[in-house]
Write a structure and sequence with these properties.
alpha/beta, Metallo-beta-lactamase, Chain A, Oxidized Rhodanese, domain 1, 17 helices, globular, about 500 residues, six-stranded mixed β-sheet, about 20% strand, eight-stranded mixed β-sheet
């Protein structure tokens, strides 16, 4: 297996999978979304499975190989990102293919029948309808030129170590329930996937870090046979037992998920238009005017510790080098929310692109020259106290009344935490902030410092001034051995 970088932001990598046949498969994995798209090629014909919104790298890849993109296969109507199917079809004349659905689409597409086959070069792609994660969910079986099944692209139906959560489609289709969907998923796994050969290679749409499952592996491929042995959802059990297991530990999905689904069904603006609109360079006066005259949120995407030293008042910090898209989607529930961007110089396009991946198309522009220009213009600058572990220890000793606030997920806090700390998950910040007294001082930490700065910045913008960020988070606190920490307990869920 070989790896090489391509022109995608957010740590894209392509892995070339060596198959028994002449078929070429390249997994295109995006770390910040924990998402896997796929480039398939046989005898000069190519297909893309679950493409991201910026599509030019797929086009470039096909041109480099002397291939023509014939199909764009979508495993389902994605909730966690906006697909690039429309732009890719427009630019390549490729056909978009979905599994069976009665949804009215805002674009031309082939709605495939169960077991329908599509010719790709010397190979075939067979559509298997697998409702459960969503009702239109389908997996795509690669059949090589010898007529043998070789790989299965499972979308969000089957992950490595997990299965897709069955509670998302109910947000779009009212008469569905998570119990009904879980029952469909049980049937799909056992009737459509498990009878397939054990040596079949499984390629899912997501890995660890995605909100589309609850405890999936960091691995991005595996054999079906190994999954039958190790994946809890594929073990022998009744449908009732399965429904209980797959629903256990689920928390509400991010608010933007249903909006992304509808964009993927109904259509959206071209990524080229979104980029042009969002890359409006604003001088400090224009930036300030728009901040005051519109309802735009000021989104500062710089490193958390750089942000802490000085930022535009009321800005919230979601660093571009962390789980950017996930936290934007979690904390800004309306994808139509207008945004004003503060970014490191030279990274503005990357920020706008990664916002567009999850449907946030309404950036009004960015601060030209960044915080340097803001400071030179004599504008007001705010900051957030951020201390290291030694300073944290001294402050804890001198002011024992200060409260240690752990903003990690409930499962992380349960697993291991500073004795006496209070858990206020960033994931549920609107509920968490209700427990915070503006008159008290809180020393805030997460796992490594990324989420805690997000938390502090959001509450700062809402008038909470007595928050102190702890650099390095729980990892630094524990390694210092200067604070009492609870015994480790294995969490039953990653939520």
């Amino acid at each position: 297996m070989s790896y090489w970088n391509i022109d995608f932001p957010c740590s894209f990598m392509l892995s070339l999978i060596e198959l028994k046949s002449t078929m070429k498969i390249e997994q295109i994995y995006t770390g910040c979304l924990a998402q896997g798209a796929y480039y398939l090629e046989s005898n000069g014909e190519a297909a893309i499975i679950d493409p991201l919104r910026e599509v030019q790298p797929y086009i470039d890849k096909a041109e480099q190989n002397g291939a023509k993109i014939k199909y764009i296969f979508e495993t389902h109507f994605h909730a966690d990102f906006v697909s690039g199917h429309m732009d890719l079809a427009k630019k390549t004349k490729a056909s978009i293919v979905f599994g069976p659905t009665e949804m009215e689409l805002g674009f031309n597409a082939i709605v495939a029948q169960d077991n329908q086959e599509f010719i790709l070069g010397k190979s075939k792609i067979k559509v298997l309808h697998t409702p459960g994660h969503t009702m239109e969910s389908a997996v795509f079986l690669l059949i090589n030129e010898e007529g043998n099944p070789e790989a299965l692209f499972t979308g969000d139906t089957l992950f490595i170590g997990d299965v897709g959560r069955p509670d998302l489609a109910q947000k779009v289709v009212k008469d569905l329930t998570q119990e009904k969907l879980a029952g469909h998923l049980y049937d799909s796994l056992r009737n459509k996937i498990m009878p397939l050969p054990d040596d079949l290679i499984i390629y899912p749409a997501h890995g660890a870090g995605s909100a589309c499952g609850k405890n999936m592996s960091k691995d991005t491929s595996d054999t079906l046979g190994n999954q039958k042995k190790t994946n809890y959802a594929l073990q022998e059990m009744s449908k009732e037992e399965f429904v209980e297991k797959v629903l256990d530990g689920l928390t509400p999905p991010p608010a933007y998920f249903p909006q992304n689904v509808m964009m993927n069904i109904q259509g959206y603006d071209s990524i080229d238009e979104v980029l042009e609109r969002g890359q409006e360079a604003l001088d400090p006066n224009d930036f300030e005017y728009l901040a005051n005259q519109t309802g735009a949120i000021i989104l500062d995407t710089r490193d958390p510790e750089v942000f802490a030293k000085g930022f535009v008042p009321n800005a919230i910090n979601i660093g571009i080098d962390g789980s950017f898209a996930v936290w934007v989607g979690t904390l800004i529930p309306d994808v139509k929310q207008e945004l004003l961007i503060v970014a490191d110089e030279g990274r503005e396009e990357e920020v706008i692109t990664r916002l567009a991946r999850v449907g946030y198309d309404h950036a009004l522009g960015f601060l030209k020259g960044g915080m340097n220009s803001w400071g030179k213009a004599g504008k007001e600058i705010d900051n957030i106290p951020s201390i290291n572990v030694d300073e944290f220890r001294k402050l804890s000793e001198s002011s024992p009344e200060n409260i240690v606030l752990d903003v990690r997920k409930a499962s992380e806090h349960f697993s291991e935490h500073v004795i006496g700390s209070v858990n206020a998950p960033l994931d549920y910040i609107n509920d968490s902030m209700k427990t915070i007294d503006k008159d008290k001082t809180y020393m805030v930490h997460c796992a490594g410092g990324y989420r805690s700065m997000i938390f502090c910045s959001v509450l700062r913008a809402r008038g909470y001034d007595n928050l102190i960020n702890i650099k390095g988070g729980f990892a630094a606190i524990k390694s210092s051995e200067k604070f009492p920490v609870s015994d480790y307990a294995c969490p039953t869920t990653m939520l």
